[in-house]
Amino acid sequence: MKLQTIVAAAFASSVFAATPAVAQDRAGWPDSFTVGTASQGGTYFAYGSGWANFVAENLGVSGGAEITGGPVQNMALVHTGDLKFGLTTMGPARESRDGESPLAPGMKMDNVCAMFPMYETPFSITALSSTGIKSISDIPDGATIGFGPAGSTSDTYFPRMMEALGVNFKRRNGSWSDLGGQLQDGLIDVVAFAAGIPIPAVSQLEVQTDVNIIGMNDEEAKKIVDQFPVSEFVIPASTYQSLDEPSRVVSMWNFAMVNCDMPESFVYEITKLTMENNEKMVSIHKAARFSVPENYSKNTVLPWHPGAARWFNENGYTIEAAAIK
Fold it and tell me: What is the DSSP-derived secondary structure letter of residue 97?
């Protein structure tokens, strides 16, 4: 026992002596952190919880994920400091910064900073094959459509998109897992998903039943791109076993965000860890193959946190001072 104590003390002493800068850099670091994600069954929860665990394990700070309503609520929680980290989509982020959040109209959520790019969120539709719905125009008048959790990216934008495409529907909210179950049970007609691919709920659905994953035709895609802050996107056929060919849809970028008051050194180390270990991030969720430094330019909405900006600038990705909080 004495020998073990002596060895442990010697090891601790050597580590402390070898890394005084690290100890100094940790001034102001929180004892723990929580990442705002979204509902279970969606990509945000899988990505966010895995990322939080990865950061916690490597930086020695307790961390985890919290189930939330998604990007809109995450913007509010990070702005107020109730959560220090969160995941958001650029559309809801812009509306929240402009004071147009449906959760707090008039409140400009400007204490939220960007950390790193995540991936694009495709907007896609899933229906049971037995319904015969193979295209948006096949969706029957008055169909019940599940749009995800209230306040999510899907719930914020997909109903507007469906209206723009002339679809007359009844709106249903719920977690992706819950809506997938309702679709399988025939309680709703369609689920309008907005999440990074592959979406866990869709992957689970197609194992249990036959589904149609529905894209957009030329006219539909052009109309949506012209009216909303999205761009065209192609879901590769390899993403789901139900796809025989690539599916053309639209998408919106996602970024990890942080309360702007978090210590620069802490955010720097998290950004460094995430951006320099993409293979590990992809093992957490395949959508993370787009979580690479080159996509930093996709952020045109949020100011950059000084800690994140320092890492990008040190590694050849220029972020001007005016874009840093």
Answer: H
* pLDDT tens readout for residues 208-266: 999 999 999 999 999 999 998 888 999 999 999 999 999 999 999 999 999 999 999 99
Q: Check whether residue 247 and residue 263 sit in a common domain.
A: no
Tokens of 85: 């980290």
- Provide the number of structural domains found in the chain: 2
Q: 23-29 contacts: CB < 8 A, separation 24 or more? A: 25/265, 25/269, 26/265, 26/266, 27/263, 27/265, 28/263, 28/265, 28/266, 29/61, 29/263, 29/265, 29/266
- pLDDT tier at 150, thresholds 50, 70, 90: confident
Residue 177 lies in a domain: yes
Q: Which of residues 217, 234, 252 is at a domain's end? A: 252
Of residues 266, 91, 250, 83, the one with CA closest to residue 165 = 250
pLDDT of residue 21: 37
Please give the structure tokens belonging to residue 160.
Answer: 């507007």
For residues 71-91, average pLDDT: 96
179 touches 172 (CB < 8 A): yes
Same domain for 128 and 210?
Answer: yes
CATH number of 231's domain: 3.40.190.10
Tokens coding 74: 């995450």
Distance of CA 145 to the CA centre of its chain: 22
Backbone angles phi, psi at 235, to 5 degrees: -80, 115
Host domain of residue 98: 33-120+254-323
Residues 97 and 172 in one domain: no
Total-model pTM: 0.81
